[in-house]
Amino acid sequence: MTDGETVSAAEGGGPAARTEFWTPGSHILWRYRENGGPHVHIARPVTVVRDDAELLAVWLAPGTECVKPVLADGTPVHLEPLVTRYTKPRTVQRDQWFGTGVLKLARPGEPWSVWLFWDPGWRFKNWYVNLEEPLARWEGGVDSEDHFLDISVHPDRSWYWRDEDEFAQAQRDRLMDAALAERVRRAGRSAVADIRAWGSPYADGWEHWRPDPSWAVPSLPGDWDRTPAHVSS
């Protein structure tokens, strides 16, 4: 799906790393695998804002066609009672990203990404820390697996945990074992330390960023669930 050029780390003057970076304006996929399974169940076409050895930043535009999980009967996942939310059969469906867009920031190897949300009129709302597997890069985008537990961070520097009930239910339903759950908790504590220190990305001014008005909304490719030929961290 990549529409733009890539630049290798060597071309950029870095070490002999083989990572190829997407140029700003490129279209890639930001995907999540189903928990406990190999299949992709979330796919979001995004536009690259920045990509280098320190940060991948992408823009999920309003109206983007995406793929999301639903129950086999079409019920939205969030409407299913928690006790059966992760055990009932599921499928996927195409849908649009409604509301304002989302800026996603991820540092290489880090077990979370930070998303920025705005209210209408570009009034900044909050940062959202999504705990997840470190992003795996492939020729068409990045893949991860969501870890349920999240953190909301607000402009006054207050923060709070989100979805602790889902995190607990996922363990009861054996979607994550004790070792993984502890790894997620450690990642959460590290993310909180970053929040308390108020370093990157919170102090970097991303809330004032705006997308290039010439950017087209990327389309969802027919092979959005394809298996990558090569994956790297």
TrEMBL record:
DUF402 domain: residues covered: 82-199
InterPro entries per record: DUF402 (IPR007295), FomD-like_sf (IPR035930), Ntdp-like (IPR050212)
Pfam families: DUF402
Keywords, alphabetical: Hydrolase
Domain of life: Bacteria
PANTHER family assigned to the protein according to its UniProt record, in alphabetical order: PTHR39159, UPF0374 PROTEIN YGAC
Protein name: DUF402 domain-containing protein
Organism whose genome encodes this protein: Streptomyces plicatus
